[in-house]
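Can't paste images in this forum, so I'm doing it all in text. The chain is below; anyone willing to post the predicted structure tokens underneath?
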Amino acid sequence: MEERLKLVFPSEEYKEQMQEFVDEFRENEENVIYGSGSIEKVESFEEWLQKVNEDLSKEKSEAKGRVQAMQYLAVRKEDNKIIGVIQIRYRLNEHLYNLGGHIGDSIRPSERNKGYSTEMIGLALKEAKKLGIGNVLMTCDKENQASARTIIKNGGVLENEVENEGRITQRYWITLKKRFADGRNKSIDILEKDFRNMRIDNEEFNGNVSLLSIKKVRKEWYVDEENRCILANNYKWLEIYPDEKNYCLTVMYDEKEKIVEWYFDIARGVGEENGVPYEDDLYLDVVLVPDGRIHLLDEDELDDAYKKREINQKEFDMAYRVANEIIEKYQEKDNIEKLKDFSNKYLEKIKTSKSFE
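Text version of the structure:
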């Protein structure tokens, strides 16, 4: 469905509209406009616009006791009318972690119950991902079931409820780190590809096995000090999603179907949407090269996410535990050979499965 809204940064162009917007809330006896950067508290539009611009700066916002934030107006495309406001906070302080979340939003009273909130949040999540936020916290009053539904429609998963001053706040997390096996969000450098997936349930393995056959790429990828190629024309990525495990495995094959490396993505979990497996990425990665070398990657990303409160202590510890278990296991050469045999076996199995003929 074509988007009806666009997000725009506030400017003088919208001064008169914003006054009407605020007046509508007051006439509806609503004294707080969530996600507006507290426009209801300032003396003038110019004062609010100055605050909005200051909040773009980490230094200026923190000097005022706030967090860095991006303010948007949700404007209807067909008539340029302001439908809502939405604010994205770059990180969480104690208050935001418990009650406010990364995103605050409001739809003007006259435009509610028309699906705009769901669309506005969806647009904001795209912007949050561009800002490098991997996991978004959104909150709402337990009594506000309409707000809860819009959060859930955008992928929100309820973590818990917090009581504050007699009110119950529900805390939902929306992951922006889902990575799908069909390559939809793996790389813009993959130009042509084929995808197939099969379910395996036997004594050896339970889970999904996918094959991404890469026909054409925009550019090749090289990694490691040896300039090892992991993406090129006619490469194959065999992707293994074991049930109830906190990782997925990508086996990268070159054009001659020789294994280049095994890439373990540590994950909160793995799942499936519309027949396509995915993993909810948890930053840490382990790379195993056929000659036995092992690399632990992206510790800085995990640490940064923890500092920004996008992951909790349990998830942080779990990521290292799973990564260390993988590293320890494949320090044994026999286990590398077993993994090689396993990988090649299921590559042939998915290639020759009758369901793909």
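The first strand starts at residue 5 and ends at 8. The chain has a mean pLDDT of 94.
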